[in-house]
Amino acid sequence: MKLGLTKAAVLLAFLPALAFNVLVDAQRGGRGVPAAPPTPRAAAPFDLSGQWVSLITEDWRQRQFTPAKGDYVPLPLSPAARKIADSWDPAKDEAVGEQCRAYGAAGLMRLPTRIRIAWDGETALKLETDAGTQTRMFYFGAPQGSGGDWQGVSAATWDAPRAPFAGRGGGPSSGGSLKVVTTRMKPGYLRKNGVPYGANAVLTEYFDRFDVPGGDALLVVTSELVDTENLMTPYWTSQQFKRENGTTGWNPTPCAAR
Amino acid sequence: MKSARGWISAGLMLLCVTLSGQAPQIPTAIPGQAPPVDLSGYWSPVLHEDLTERGPGSEIADYGGFPLNEAGRLWALSYDPSRVTLRHHQCEAYLAPYQMRALGNFRIWEEREEHTQRLVAIHIWAQTTEGHRIVWMDGRPHPPAWAPHTFRGFSTGQFVGNALVVRTTHMKNGALRRGNGAPESDQATLTEFFVRHDDHLTNVTVVTDPVFLSEPMVRSNDFSRQPVDPGAWLYACDDGEQILDRPKDYVPHYVFGKQPFAREFATRYKLPVASSLLGGVTMYPELAARLRSVTDAEANALFAPAAGRSPETSKGIDPEPRDGNIHIWPVRENVYMLVGDGGNIVVQTGDQGAFVVDTGEGTMSEKVIAAIRTLTDKPIQFIANTNFRREHTGGNAALGAAGQDPSLPGSFFLVQAPRGVTGFFDDPLKHATMMAHVNVQVRMQAAGAPAGAVPADTYLDDRRRKFHNGDSIELFHQPNAVTDGDSLVYFRRADVIVAGDIFTTTQYPVIDVKSGGSVQGLIAALNDILDRTVYRHQGEGGTYIVPGHGYLADEHEVVEYRDMVVIVRDRIKALIQAGATLQQVKAARVTADYDTQFGANTGPWTTDMFVEAVYSSLKAAPAR
């Protein structure tokens, strides 16, 4: 390849910078000796652990009380899902031991509840609720378990925004969210009044922590539920929790169908 | 790569990659630097939560999930949604927290400084009410307490982690929830977090309001990114006559305990009556247990002020700087507001001498004069007083003596005027001319004020006018408002009204019944202000109103204040008609929903004194 004078000058102009970059890399430990990646726990951009209480400030009536049968506005239900919702019978659920249908992963975080989050080793987060006494496990790396229960299988990643100059070709920047994708859930209810989601539903959640200046720490869980069987469009909501100091208020209760 | 341009591009890319080896891998939280998240684009709200409220509107008494304190709950229960049929309420915009929950399209774009490309601001435009929010990213401070409030407030932002964090102050009174009266006060502050997940944007709003909330109100709003301009961005609104032949002093509201639809929400959804009225606990899992312990009597008591309590006091920020300095706030064109010496002072400047409205308490007159000197090198030529009170006339003598009226020497007026009678000064080049309604002169003379402090240029009827410094200035007498000598001073070209103590943002009106004040006259005076105002856009801006005390306002603050006076009058009137004594009226806590804004239990003007003034003026001249 034969370079013209202009092209060669341009390339030469940038060569010292390239050399400096290599030098900086060498000082960091060298490209050939990659450092062990931090564990998910060590890489956490923020602390989620502790006890949090839900703040029911939206869809208040439908969340603090069990709505009447057929009260499913504005959920984008398919005709099949409406039919299921319209035939909701909590007595039947109780009779077959299915009181926890509204406590599955897709509905659980919208219930009035306290949650406790803690690391389970270096690669998993455990989230417990006192409402319905449920436990969700968020696994970084390969998901564990086969699912088929209320909480399904949850795969977790740290979802950091991409900054153009952070790392070559764009790498993580500071901050970020906990992204949790949950599949293989046992069919359950989005609302306690029998609004259904199915076994093929995919729940994607983003957990963000926000520190209010001079005050509370908030955990906001933005969730998208995709369930082509029951929902005409993805169903987006965001739930907020306030951090609590200590364990006061923790009140484990069994699932209730009504 | 076939051109030199291509090679230059490649080189620049190489440089970028190379620089990454030098730069720390952290985006910035420092104003003015590169944002770690780009919010720019077209966004549509995702309405999967609270759709009924955000669409058709919320139901009366549906305050569940809102941490309303007693004042907030009573304010809401007193609210009649038909209030929006009144002209001055028809086009009101949404407050910033509710704006983010509105229907319609949103657009977000960055404003960058041309030469450095530093991020100066992030703009948020909401279609509904044409809400334009500006989030300043350049590190500028928030305005002082005496600066005007707007529906969207004043916002500053910074990036923290992957979120844009926005702090907003200086919002107006308005709705925390649309349509059912749940209020937010002008003392509220807003903290927001914007975080983006691919093409989804989550906005978290945290409203802290010491006036109406017992704890912060947290909500979240979701948006989905739109790939193209949806094209609908406007929201035209002009007010008009919706219901004819109503008296001007009519404000739709319900007397405490008389809201006929207050139980409808609970009945329709088979909820306990108290369920949505219990304030903060309604947000928490504890609600169910709390409801189990609520008796019928306790539930019924939620519709009226709790008995036996002392009035609450104002939770508002004291707008007085109290730092020993006089602060100048430019109002519009050549009109300025001076803050720091008791009552607000207004100065108009131009090629003639300064025209000053009110002179403060007089404890800092030298600094007031020095501040005026920074605005104009012309002397103080005219001083107008809005009333006789010391907070507004205390500096008359000092400011008058520091001024001169060059329009008088050699004039027939001065030669012929019997100065000993009129109070004009022997040498007008040694004193400003002071004007007011004649009752100000009478009352100041009766109080033994020195001659140099008493307005001499008085008017007797309804209007005094003067063209000065290129503006048409009018004084309008407001008979029997807070006194019998109140004037509005209207700078017509600048479109600024100086209200004196007819309107404040800090306290209940000081209706001085003994000096000729009355509640009916005050309501008429507030309506007279509103007859002269024109808003710029969506119920705000346009005509500015300088209050006797407090922050620079527009018609929205005046109409809220007018509503308050009318509502309190109506409650007291109803009790009088039922045979209540003054003590019974006070015990009824007729101001309970306004006390956290305006109340005082100590000092020169207490809530009890205000109630007594309304009561006595109604007893003296029963309202219609």
**Helical content of chain A (DSSP H or I, runs of 4+):** 10-25%
Major beta-sheet overview of chain B: 9 strands, mixed, barrel
The CATH superfamily label of the largest domain in chain B reads: Ribonuclease Z/Hydroxyacylglutathione hydrolase-like
Outline of chain A: globular
Please give a structural write-up.
The complex is a heterodimer of chains A (258) and B (624). Chain A is an alpha+beta fold and 258 residues long. Chain A has helices at residues 5-27, 60-64, 79-86, 90-95, 105-108; strands spanning 50-55, 114-119, 124-129, 135-140, 153-159, 162-163, 171-172, 177-183, 188-191, 195-197, 202-211, 217-226, 235-244. Chain A has a nine-stranded mixed β-barrel with strand order 1-2-3-4-5-8-11-12-13. Chain A has a two-stranded antiparallel sheet with strand order 6-7. The model of chain A is unreliable at 1-6, 8-30 and 165-172 (pLDDT under 50). By secondary structure, chain B is of the alpha+beta class. Chain B folds into two domains: 41-58 and 90-226, Lipocalin; 327-620, Metallo-beta-lactamase, Chain A (4-Layer Sandwich). In chain B, 24% of the residues lie in helices and 21% in strands. In chain B, the strands form four sheets. A nine-stranded mixed β-barrel of chain B has the order 1-2-3-4-5-6-9-10-11. A seven-stranded mixed beta sheet of chain B has the order 12-13-14-15-16-17-18. A five-stranded mixed beta sheet of chain B has the order 19-20-21-22-23. In chain B, strand 7 (174-175) and strand 8 form a beta hairpin. Mean pLDDT of chain B is 92; it is low at 1-29. At the A-B interface, helix 1, strand 1, helix 2, strand 7 and strand 11 of A face helix 1, strand 6, strand 9, strand 10 and strand 11 of B.
